[in-house]
Design a protein that fits this description.
five-stranded mixed β-sheet; 2 helices; 9 strands; 8% helix; Cu-oxidase_C; Cupredoxin; Cu-oxidase_fam; Multicopper oxidase domain-containing protein
Length: 148
């Protein structure tokens, strides 16, 4: 399972970002293998809803669950404050964009089944894209780490 922290437009000095949001210029951290299915979690600590779009893949929205934002920010602990709520009826079926609500963890299952290479995933609000709320993912071939 992959977990992604919040985005924050506040500038962060360059260098290691342990515990800080990642930005476009940081190394690619999402490297799913072609032919796999991953459960991704978006942890939204902001006050905004973010429509998150993944390029060249489709996914199923699983659920959303509220959590203690302040505890996550201060201690890095993900403590849920309510039950997980399944995707709404209009969100069922294959999607390429998911709504990440404030104070919620949004989970979705992504199948990486057609293409290898570098692709983008990002917030679909133009101003947020301009504030680097976008990341690269690299879909790698199934056999890229096998020894011959």
């Amino acid at each position: 399972m992959r977990s992604f922290e919040q985005w924050d437009p506040t500038p962060i000095p360059t260098g290691p970002r342990e515990g800080h949001p990642l930005h476009w210029g940081d190394a690619t951290t999402e490297k799913p293998r072609l032919g796999t299915v991953e459960i991704w979690r978006l942890i939204n600590t902001t006050v905004d809803t973010h429509p998150i779009h993944l390029h060249l893949v489709r996914f199923l929205i699983l659920d959303r669950q509220p959590f203690d934002v302040e505890r996550f920010r201060s201690a890095g602990e993900l403590v849920f404050t309510g039950p997980a709520v399944p995707a709404a009826e209009n969100e069922r079926g294959m999607k390429d964009t998911v709504r990440a609500n404030p104070g919620e963890v949004t989970r979705f299952a992504v199948r990486f089944g057609r293409y290898t290479g570098e692709f983008v995933w990002h917030c679909h609000i133009l101003e947020h894209e301009d504030m680097e709320m976008m990341r690269r993912m690299e879909v790698i071939a199934e056999d890229s780490n096998r020894r011959r």
